[in-house]
Give the backbone structure.
Amino acid sequence: MAEKGWPSAHLVEAAQRGDAESISALVSDSYPHVMQFARALCASPDDAEDAAQEALLILYSKIGMLRATGALSSWMFRIIRNECLRRARLSLRNAAPPREDSTEYLEENVLRRLEADRVAAAVAALPEDQRRVLIMRDVQGYSGHAVAEALGLSTAAMKSRLHRARAAVRESLQEPTETTKEGS
């Protein structure tokens, strides 16, 4: 399991102190996780690769700005999410003017991206303990046992946090719909 997890807090701390070997190891060890986030969040494989590279550059140059060593995965998730959204907006701006027959497709594409943004914001708003469980289980695809083990939790505690996180995200995503229905 150790090789699958994010870099250790000791490595992050050493990198934050400016140790060149630790910074290099941190970037290298984070790469698989960063790519997994990028593939899940970006619209295309090219955007995912570019977003991952940008995130690793930020990690390399701004590791000292990370407040808590345990927040590395959440920090990287936010960086990648923002970079994927930036790239999506840029591609929409640079796209050829829509033809009449492609308007429906473009509307669906924009709505899908807006929904992805809402989901990412709902996940980012979760408390740290719930967010970590949700990301490891539902985004990174780790088994329940592996998540519990990596976070030092019992399987029951991990399942409880995952259930609360999923419920909070679901509730957050339903709020505008319920408001719209009430206003009708």
